[in-house]
Each structure stands twice: as C-alpha cells, then as structure tokens.
Amino acid sequence: MRVAMPLRRPFRTSFGTQTSRDILLVRVEGVADGAATIGWGECVAMDEPRYSAEYVAGAAAVIEHFFVPELLRAGDLRADGVAPLLAVFEGHPMAKASLEMAVLDAELRVAGRSFAEHLGAVRDRVPAGVSVGITDTVGQLLDQVAGYLDDGYLRIKLKIEPGVDIERVAAVRERFGDGLTLQVDANAAYSLDDAAHLAQLDAFDLLLIEQPLATDDLRHHSLLATRMRTPICLDESILSAKGAADAIALGACSIVNIKAGRVGGYLEAVRVHDVCQVHGVPVWCGGMLETGLGRAANVALAALPGFTLPGDTSASDRYWIRDLTEPFVLGSDGHVAVPSGPGLGVEPIPDMLAEVTTSSTWLPAGGAQR
Ligand code: NPQ
Ligand code: MG
User: Does the N-terminal or the C-terminal CB of the chain have fewer CB atoms within 10 Å?
Assistant: First the structure.
C-alpha cells in the first residue's frame, strides 16, 4: 500500500527538496509455527530516483510483477530465505528489503521475539542524532540547530552542497562551540577536484564527512582521504557487506553509514555491521525519513554493538506532525528507546493508516486485486 505523509518542514539536500513523503508499505499475511500472523515492511525508496536508482512506483511494480510471484512460487517462506530467492533479480535492494522486513516481522511476532533480540542488540536505548537540511539563510540554519539541541539531540548533521558548505559549518561551530558533535553530508555532490576546498572543513573538527563524491567512485574517495584529515564516511556507495569490505580495503572510508534498505535488508545490514566490526570501522544507522515502522527496525539495528556513533534515528516529530505508529520520542538523555515487543514492537494506528493511505493492492497467489 502507498501512504502520503506531509513533512513537518521541507527537507533540502544536494539532490532536491522534499515537502512530503510518498511511502510504499508492505503487509504480509501468513501462518508461522501453526499460528496466523501479519507483518509490516517499509520501503525506503523516494518518490523520484535521486538518492538512488529506486523510486516508489518502480519498487511497487517490481514487487508486484517479479518479487511476490517468485516468493509465492517457492511456497514455504522464512525471512532468511527471502534474499536468496530474490537474488536471481538484479538490483532493487530497497524493494527487496521491504519484503524481507515484512516476513521477518510476521515470523518474529509469532515467535514472541523482538527485532532487536533477533538482530543481536546489546542496548535498550540508542543515542539520537538529527539531520538538518540545507536552509535558505545562515540564520535559519542556526535557528534550526538551536531548536534540535534544545530538544536534546546528541549530534548534528548538516547537509552541504557546493556553495553552501564551509561558511555554514563555520557559523554553526562558532555559535555552538567546540562541544557540539558535528558532521556533514554531501550526498555525492562534489568531485575530487574539490579536494582542496573540502580540506577547509578540517579546521572545524568534524566527526566525519559523509559521501562527498559519487556513489561509484571508491578510488577517488580513497584519494580524497589522503588530502583531508576529516574522516570519510560512506553512505550511497555501500551496497552490501562485500562492498563494505572492498571500500575499507581500498581506504575509501574509515566510517560506514548503514541503511538496511540500501543493502537489501536488515539481515544484510547485520553482515555489513559484522564486516565493519572485524575491521575496527565504526558504524552508525542512517535514516530515510521512515514512518514509525521503519524507525522501529532502524532503532533495533542501531542497538548492535558496532553502532558506536549516534545515528539519524531521530524521534518521530523530527519529520511527522503525526506518525503512523505510536511516536518514537527523544528521552531527556537524548536517546530513543529500542522497542521490546514481538517483531517490530509497533504497528500502524488503524485510523491514522486509513487517513494517509492513497492506494493498496492485494497480491494473493492467483494475481493482483486492487
Ligand atoms: C542521507 N537521509 O543520509 C539521507 C538522505 C535523504 C536523514 O539525511 C525523502 C526520502 C527525502 C528519503 C532526503 C538523511 C530524503 C530521503 C534525504 C533521504 O543521505
Ligand atoms: Mg547520507
């Protein structure tokens, strides 16, 4: 099903401005261990192919025409069988991840186990950071950062792009001081020719710079790492556990942002975590403006031991006036609680879901019903 959720405020990045979120949700029904169960998945694809090649309508189509028929043909299905079955199809990691998430949720609800427990969490709360979009003026940026620090967020991430970078970081550092944990995200907006320009960021003691260069450019990231002191973190470039191992071996990054959708699912996300842990590479949990469903799974993932940096695991009210589930709230300690109930530990509030649903398609063994 598709839901339309207005954003609390427009979110601008180097690839565009979003004012609302069109989100594909997956609801599976089945029987596990003899008991009827349902599960929810959330696809993190954006409505347009800007952050990555996937987009909502494309994800819905590939799920309907290829992925669900393939899974139905296989019959007996477990969450750890979803990725292997769908591996015959190229690409579409976000669409694949949403199906695996839904099957895993259904399975864990019957087993009475939480996502956190299943993935290997070692914490019951996770430190929360917040991602701040590009603003029209420096004044607006300072006001927004002040507001988030007031809320209690433990680290600030500024979106940057060519022309809106060094002075913004300088202004935030000057206003909030050396104690502020600060990082930036370029969403692939620069090229290696900008190395000297980007090295000016070294003066501001940033925790990291996220994805400065193109998604497919590991070699240039590794060269950039020799030309600036600020640690390089990869987001868009990390598409699998093997890819993470390659990036680390090439010296393209020293920190990794993990997003389950981008790597094809929460089970692969755990493997990315494991590879990074073996190499002593810190990881943190990214965000894709998820509803409470995706947020629940992200917070569970962020509770694994290698997640040593605050994630973009913000509270629900960072993005939504009203979330689809009971809202995730920021505690006075700047942490978000990890759900402990079976499966995701949260579900859509029926009234709220009905209010935001724009279409739904039921895919039984016989064929689609709208
Ligand atoms: C990132 N997320 O780390 C992404 C990018 C991003 C929280 O900064 C709609 C849907 C708009 C997904 C804008 C954060 C989005 C989006 C930015 C993802 O690169
Ligand atoms: Mg990013």
Answer: C
